[in-house]
Amino acid sequence: MPVSISLSVNGRTFDVEVEPTEMLVNVLRERLGFVGTNKVCSQGICGACTVLLDGLATTSCLLLAAQADGCEVTTVEGLERDGELSVLQEAFLRHGAVQCGYCTPGFLMTATALLRNNGDPTRDEIVDGVRGNICRCTGYAKIVDAISSAAKTLRAAK
What we know:
Layout: E1 3-9, E2 12-18, H1 24-31, E3 50-53, E4 56-59, E5 72-74, H2 87-94, H3 104-117, H4 123-129, H5 141-156
Parallel strand pairs: 1-5
Antiparallel strand pairs: 1-2, 3-4, 3-5
Helix pairs in contact: 2-5
């Protein structure tokens, strides 16, 4: 039997009927149209479905949509402001950390949470911070470089 939930996605409130077993990734992609959140493994292993749930990096393929009731969800589409890419998104482009791009949204969301909690991470802290995300194209060096560069830019802007 469906349940009604209300959640805010990228600052916009949605009231949705969901099945008790329906995962958040499916609601975001199939019902609300936030297709930047990728669905790959459905096991929480790859990190491509990572979103911010009340500011915390969360694998949306493991979270029941009903558990997000009353929460603020940020998807990769919510990182840009007024049509401008975020500092982190720009750094990913500048450093070539996008390759095929399939894992990129998850890395961006995980890195956003990391940089909010630690504005001056070491390379080891960045590597540790994104350990739940898998990339088969870049070898991670460009991703770590991009996150490090974004951290420096954000610190300089303060």
